[in-house]
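Revision sheet: structure tokens.
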Amino acid sequence: MLSDLIILFIAGFLGGILNSIAGGGSFITFPALLFAGVPPISANATNTFASCSGYMSGTWAFRKELLEVKSELPRYIFISLLGGIGGAWLLLQTPESAFETAVPWLLLFATLLFIFGGQLNRSLKQLSTKHRHASAAGAILLSLLLMGVCLYGGFFNAGLGIISLSYLALAGHTDINRMNGLKLLISTFVSLIAITLFIYNDVIAWYEGSIVLTGTLTGGYAAAHLSRKLPQQLVRNFVIIASIGITLYFFYDVYK
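Predicted:
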């Protein structure tokens, strides 16, 4: 329907702007796919597909910062691929009804991460400065934690960037540009491997996803100009209000 096409494009456009300026675009695009009639698991897989191009272009934009830690990149890529395919596999094993029931809780988790992620990152940075000389056991625990982050990203894409930043803060990173580059690198490889499994199992709604993707790319391009004019805190407050409203709606819809 034409109305669905318009809604999906606008959602993608707004999501692209939000992702470029403050993050949280999935709070708009994922519900829009559900409202357009895409089943929950397919909507989640489709949202991952629609978001991936933004991750890839962002990773390329931070290539200089990533080269500064090039020796660490193979580990990040390997764990991202392993966790991403594990999370995507878990999603595909989850019954549609069970995932539909889990959606409001996943959205609530992602919303809380978005609201309190900044405070969490600052606390983790302070913790990391006190424990810079991590033991071998600490390094293993950090790798397992990264695996958990990537498993979550393969299962449910919303909030992945915020969790990744929290992990990087705990791992001792302090340069925000390098952290953003690594965050996008993780998101890229988690999404790419998850999308591969989603394609194999034919769960991506290509028509709806392509419309959202077109809107996301357009919105991301527009954000390059808007980001200089819009206060980030204003955009962030909008995302918080929208995500709380959407989360409450899904709790009502599932448990009414």
